[in-house]
């Protein structure tokens, strides 16, 4: 664990599952309990991240996978590690879990994806939110436009299958994975149980709460 350097928490799951909603709630809860948080996301807000966000209509497959991995290593070096060194609780909306799903939907095989991502730092907790394809489609339909991954017809079911496989795969790589149903369980209940896990990890690190 990275606990002597703060805590690193990732929040992942299919498009529209509720990552940013839960992230906002989690940050509020942790801040109100006296923790210093650092909220971040992938693609990052750097030039590489902006490039990744704009890339999906032009670049695909292994090329897009490498752009996402490049942005991730930049993220680790320039945002995640500096914030962990300041003992913050770093919360990232998407991380390597996303590549193990989105790049697979884009026909890149798992071995290649892992090969270019295997040197990432392991989060203290990797939260994966899931919901049924119907619910995901309903939530996404509320939006006016969609990305390549959101528009792809079979994407919802593929995303769910690949997230389940990613959870299993990452556990074997030593990740502490926490899979949650974000369909029938409320935003409040889920963010409460994630907060509890984070506080438990913090206390286990021997730092105490303040
Ligand atoms: N547990 C929940 N129950 C019901 N609705 C939820 C729940 N969690 C999130 N939502 C709703 O789902 C919708 C999508 O949420 P959000 O934008 O946070 O998803 P996201 O995973 O961040 O999406 P994207 O990956 O596309 O950015 C929002 O309208 C949000 O209010
Ligand atoms: C982290 C990550 C991102 N992408 C691409 C796929 C989408 O174009 C965006 C995700 O944007 P959102 O606003 O979070 O929906 O980035 C990718 O291909 N692989 C990745 O690992």
UniProtKB/TrEMBL annotation:
- One Pfam family recorded for the sequence: Thymidylate_kin
User: Where is each Thymidylate kinase-like domain found?
Assistant: 11-194
Could you state one GO cellular component term attached to this entry? cytosol
Q: EC number(s) for this protein?
A: 2.7.4.9
**Catalytic activity, per the record?**
dTMP + ATP = dTDP + ADP
Q: Which GO terms describe its biological process?
A: dTDP biosynthetic process; dTTP biosynthetic process; dUDP biosynthetic process
Under Gene Ontology molecular function, one entry of this record is:
dTMP kinase activity
Alphabetically ordered keywords of this record: ATP-binding, Kinase, Nucleotide biosynthesis, Nucleotide-binding, Transferase
Which Gene3D superfamilies does this chain map to? P-loop containing nucleotide triphosphate hydrolases
Q: Which PANTHER family match?
A: THYMIDYLATE KINASE (PTHR10344), UMP-CMP KINASE 2, MITOCHONDRIAL (PTHR10344:SF4)
NCBIfam families noted in UniProt: DTMP_kinase (TIGR00041)
Family to which this protein belongs: Belongs to the thymidylate kinase family.
What's the name of the protein? Probable thymidylate kinase
């Amino acid at each position: 664990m990275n606990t002597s350097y703060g805590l690193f928490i990732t929040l992942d799951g299919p498009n529209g599952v509720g990552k940013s909603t839960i992230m906002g709630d989690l940050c509020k809860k942790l801040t109100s309990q006296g923790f210093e948080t650092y909220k971040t996301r992938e693609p990052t807000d750097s030039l590489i991240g902006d490039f990744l966000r704009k890339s999906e209509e032009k670049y695909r497959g292994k090329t897009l996978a490498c752009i996402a991995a490049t942005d991730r290593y930049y993220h680790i070096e320039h945002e995640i590690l500096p914030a962990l060194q300041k003992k913050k609780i770093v919360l990232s909306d998407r991380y390597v879990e996303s590549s193990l799903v989105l790049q697979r939907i884009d026909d890149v095989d798992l071995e290649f994806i892992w090969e270019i991502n295997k040197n990432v730092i392991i989060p203290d907790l990797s939260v994966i939110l899931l919901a049924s394809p119907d619910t995901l489609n309903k939530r996404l339909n509320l939006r006016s436009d969609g990305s390549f991954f959101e528009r792809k017809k079979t994407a919802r079911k593929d995303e769910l299958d690949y997230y389940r496989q990613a959870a299993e795969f990452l556990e074997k790589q030593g990740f502490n994975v926490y899979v949650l149903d974000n369909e029938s369980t409320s935003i409040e209940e889920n963010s409460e149980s994630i907060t509890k896990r984070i506080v438990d990890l913090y206390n286990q690190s021997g730092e105490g709460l303040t």
